[in-house]
Amino acid sequence: MQENVPLTWEEVARVYGRKIYNFAYRLTGNSDDAADLTQEVLLRVKKGLAGYRPGSFEGWLWRITRNAFLDDVRRRKRRPTVPLPDEVDRVAGHSSPAPDQVLANVRLGEDIQAVLLELPYDFREAVVLCDIVGLSYEEISAVVTAPIGTVRSRIHRGRKMLKERLK
Amino acid sequence: MTHLGELLSAFLDGEVTEDERSRVGGHLATCLACWDEFNDLNSARTAVRSLLILDLPPGLIPSQEGVAEVLPLSHRPPVWIAAAAAAILALFIGIATILAPPTTLELRLDQLSDQYGARTSLQPSLTPRTPVPVLDQGAIE
Questions:
Q1: Quick one: what percent of chain B has pLDDT higher than 90?
Q2: Any idea what the CATH number is for the domain that residue A2 is in?
Q3: B139 vs B92, residue with greater confidence
Q4: How many beta-carbon pairs under 8 angstroms link A with B?
Q5: First-to-last CA distance in chain A?
Q6: Is the dihedral of CA A149, A154, A157, A159 positive or negative?
Q7: Complex confidence, ipTM
Q8: pTM given for the model
Q9: What is d(CA A167, CA A146) in angstroms, rounded to the nearest whole number?
Q10: What are the residue boundaries of the structural domains of chain B, listed by start?
Q11: Smallest CA–CA distance from A33 into chain B, residue
């Protein structure tokens, strides 16, 4: 976990904005909701940065992100929606794979995303924080305020469900 | 035989102790069921990790210059300030146009000649080049 605390809110936005957006997209499956959530998180960071005390900055940031997501879910009183098949236009990176390969990746990505959204929230969150955001079990434990054993169990069960449903 | 269960995912993520690592390695060498589960978990993990990293939609994070993109509307300058600034600017341009002396577009040939002479003195590259003499190879030797 990175302990170097970015000094300004703009730096936080530039360094973590994309990660926050990807976390949000993988949880919601909707690009508009993900964009709204990213903005909400950045606003909360802007308000909270002055009061931040040195410690685990990423832990602090991902707790804000998680809380913003849960607040949004509660406010809307609805379940996340089905993902939009619009990933082709937003493929990141500088390499240029063959069009067939891109299309295959996108279709596979849509399948995986759809199955992710079928997972119970706790499992999905643990898998996304581990495999998309790249946090350690200890960091995830701090973000979701659950014991490491619980985190390990959620990740394991989430992956098993994913595999079963992707077959 | 006790199967590995959750320990397999932790092993894949490098979240095990040395003892657990040895135990997993030894068990996988002899238990086909755990070996199959290990492969399933590994493929699920790889699938999620292979998801595209999406780019941020344009304008979602602040540019180098400012943070206006993510500020809520209530934090932005009121529209009337921009309208007032535009009105003042238009008024100023109008007055300046009325008060300015008329200009003429007539150009005389000698003026053009003077301008060209001035430019060539400042920018030698505009001066026609003299041909570069071709050296005789025998003369150099």
A1: 35
A2: 1.10.1740.10
A3: B92
A4: 111
A5: 34
A6: negative
A7: 0.76
A8: 0.64
A9: 30
A10: 6-49
A11: B57
